[in-house]
Amino acid sequence: MTTPGLVVEEVSRHLDGRLVVHPLSFTLPPGRILALCGANGAGKSTVLKMVAGVLPPSGGSIRLDGLAPAARPRDYARALGYLPDRDPLPPRLTGAEILAFFAALKGIARPQITAMAVRLGLEPVLDRAAGSLSQGYRRRLLLAQALAGRPRLLVLDEPGNGLDPRWSRELGRLLAEARTAGAAVLLSTHFMEEAEELADEVLFLHEGRVLGRGPVAAFQARFGVPGLRRAFFDLLAAAGV
Prior knowledge:
Layout: E1 6-15, E2 18-28, E3 33-37, H1 44-52, E4 59-64, H2 73-78, E5 80-83, H3 95-106, H4 110-119, H5 135-147, E6 153-157, H6 165-180, E7 184-189, H7 192-198, E8 201-206, E9 209-215, H8 216-223, H9 228-238
Parallel strand pairs: 3-7, 3-8, 5-6, 6-7
Antiparallel strand pairs: 1-2, 1-4, 8-9
């Protein structure tokens, strides 16, 4: 029996003596896209950092096809593509140098990451220093390294930030292709419309607690299109917030 993609069991996180993510469990099978939705400060980025292996959980366990990030961090890191919420790009390196670094780090063939850079329209800026690039170009550089190499799991923190409508549409196509190829995709957004456009399912968070989870289509059938915004406010009201 095959382990079903990403398995998160009772994962929590303390910060300065405060529980910022309450025990959280979910399974994300291959070929599915799950969006974490909620306001700023809901705990979305903290959850994604723990899943990506960047931040250790205070409790619980995380497995990707049975592989734990703490047990074999290098193998785990190579199995996923991670887009952080903040831009860590070295300002003096060129786009080409940054992509070459990520290709070597993740064991990806250079043609694969170059093809993704072309797909994301980065050819005109590959010889320019990252510090001179617009937010949109920098975001696409980070997306290129995350999406290249057919990762088994994509962990994308606010992937639409800084993208204009053209590249938002291309992002949707790329995620649909990754899903078809069997990748599990975990993303965060505070834009309900983005979740409706990209995800199969949504998990609502508020102050580190789960408010609810379900298929996007089910929420739309209940509340209309767009339905996630209405669902979110109903869940908040039911929780007495």
